[in-house]
Structure formats: structure tokens, C-alpha cells
Amino acid sequence: MRPQVQPRHDWTLEEIEALFERPFTELVFAAAEVHRAWFDPTEVQLSQLLSVKTGGCPENCGYCSQSQHFKTSTVASKLMAAQAVIDAAAEAKAGGAQRFCMGAAWRDLKDRDLPRVAAMISGVKALGLETCATLGMLTADQAQALKAAGLDYYNHNLDTGPDYYDKVVTTRTYQDRLDTLSAVRDAGISTCCGGIVGMGETRRDRAGLLHALATLPAHPDSLPINDLMPIPGTPLGESEAVDGLEFVRMIAVARIVCPKAVVRLSAGREHMSRELQALCFLAGANSMFVGGKLLTTANPDKDTDAALMADLGLRPMTMA
Ligand code: SAM
Ligand code: DTB
Ligand code: SF4
Prior knowledge:
Elements: H1 13-21, H2 24-38, E1 43-53, H3 82-94, E2 99-104, H4 114-126, E3 130-134, H5 140-149, E4 153-155, H6 165-168, H7 174-186, E5 190-192, E6 195-197, H8 203-214, E7 222-227, H9 244-257, E8 262-265, H10 274-282, E9 287-289, H11 302-312, E10 315-316
Parallel strand pairs: 1-2, 1-9, 1-10, 2-3, 3-4, 4-5, 6-7, 7-8, 8-9
The structure holds S-adenosylmethionine, 6-(5-methyl-2-OXO-imidazolidin-4-yl)-hexanoic acid and iron/sulfur cluster.
Residues 63-64, 103, 105-106, 134, 136, 156-157, 159, 196, 226, 228-229, 231, 267, 295 line the site of S-adenosylmethionine.
């Protein structure tokens, strides 16, 4: 079967489930071919995260260390000063990051916080970094204000398939997420949207997430696949780890159904072997988070990732 290289928006759930069922090596080979049609497979986009406002979130996402509904070891803090964020971004750039992603544990952005967030974004942009933010739900006006401040990407994940969503979070709906994604797209901001595996979902739910992403009016520009970082004290803190090969299948199918998206091997590398990460890059992942910390949990440190990239012959992605 020749791989489908041109982006399609009419994928059916059954077609996507059938991709998951393919023999592993055939699936990875097909994904690798699609990868090469759109990207230099030796290039990896490097993003770095900073939690600019941690904890105390009113949402009840069952995976999250920052929800006020669960007792976790995460210590809540207020919104950082813009200059402190800009200083951290300068350090990230010096460490090799290409994009700086500012995360806040909010249900939605409040207009009173907009001036400070805009100052962070324009300051980070002025350093010559790509900017990304993830601040919860946005209105159309807020999305436009963030775009005017210099925001390149907005991260807002669908997290899982629509049928499993209310097992994970009940304080918002799938449609709420889709509405914010529309506001972001309409403002001309690039979308970063993906999800998490390892929350007790079935393969059909994983296919459901990728189906939702592949049938959006525009495919995500950036598509993060997170392997759950289990957080003690959360409802999903004792979840059984997903088999590594199943995780690779998720990356490969994401690459095939959203061929032009930059697919990020996102949270969870801390507990993955180098060989598993190499398989993910072979299956079409072409982005990762760098720096020793994600938002509240650990990520491989700079030296570990520099060695991984050197040993795999990977280079930072050439920027437009
Ligand atoms: N509050 C905003 C929101 O929910 O959109 C932004 C921050 S939130 C932490 C960003 C994303 O991180 C979530 O949508 C989820 O996909 C991912 N995430 C959060 N906790 C995680 C965990 N323990 N393991 C893996 N991914 C996680
Ligand atoms: C995404 O998909 N993964 C990032 C980013 N977007 C914001 C967050 C991962 C968070 C992992 C858990 C933590 O560090 O709290
Ligand atoms: Fe809040 Fe985002 Fe965590 Fe959900 S994932 S509890 S919205 S910080």
C-alpha cells in the first residue's frame, strides 16, 4: 500500500483504527515515508517549557498535578513577573531551545492578566525565539490580543478521544476545547494540539483522538503526543504504563493522518529508553521538549539529550 502523503481531512475512524492494526514494521515504514515527503528526517524541533503560573487550577483534569481538586506535591504560585520569564527564556535560548512555551494553570485567561502575559510574549519574541503559550480557554478577542503581542503558537490539547473525555475531565467539554482552537486559528496563531496516552483509554480512544485532530478544519501545526507522567494523588496517578510499541504506533499514525504537522515526542521521555525514543523519531516524531523540566515534572537534562541527538545524527530543525 502506498502511503497517503497529501493531507486529508476526510479520514474515518475505521481507517485510522485500521492503521493501528497494521503489522508494526509496515506501519513504521509507511510513517517514515510520509515523514520524508514533508520534512528532513534528521531535523528535530526543540521547545522548552516554563510554568509561569503553577497550581490551584479549578479544572479537574485527572492527570494533572496542578488541579486544586487533588492533593499532590505541587506547590501553587502566582503569575511570574514578565522580566523573570524573559530571563528564563534567554537561558533556554542559550541552551539551544528554538521555541519557548509559557504554561499557566488556568481554566481560562482573565483580561486582568492579559497585559502581563502580553509583555512576556513580546519580550520572549524579541529574543529571537518562537513563542508559544498554553493558558486555558480564550475568547476571540483575547486570541487576537495574544497574536498582536507576538504569539506564534497556542497549545490547547484535546487530550483523548471524544468518547473517553468525560472519564478524564468533567469541568469542561470537548466542544469548549474546539471553540478555543477555532478562536486561535481565526486569530492567525498556529495551533499546537494533541493529547496523552496511558490514561486507561483503549486503542479506539487513541484512534478517536487522532480522528478528531485529522478532521479539524486545519490540521494542528504542532501535534504533541504525551505519555502520561503519573502524578501521585491524582485519579490517574496509578495508571498502568502503556506498552512502548503501542506508543510508537500512536506516533506513527499521527504522522500519517496529519502528514505536515510537527509531531512532538512530548511528556514521558524521562521514563523512555533511548531505543524507544529512536523508534519514535523513526516513526515520524520530529520535535521534543528540552531542558530538565516540563511544567512540574522531570525531563531529560541538556547533556543527556545532546548525547541522544549526536548518537542518532539528529540536528535542530532549520527555522523558517
Ligand atoms: N491549563 C492549560 C490547559 O489545560 O490547556 C495549560 C496547561 S496543561 C498542563 C497542558 C497540557 O499538558 C494538558 O492539556 C495535557 O495534555 C498535558 N499534561 C498535563 N499533565 C500531564 C501529565 N501528568 N502527563 C502528561 N501530559 C500532561
Ligand atoms: C503538551 O502537550 N505537553 C506539555 C505542553 N503541551 C504544555 C505539558 C506536559 C506537562 C507534563 C506534566 C507536568 O510537567 O506537569
Ligand atoms: Fe488546569 Fe490545565 Fe492542569 Fe487541567 S491540565 S488541571 S486545565 S492546568
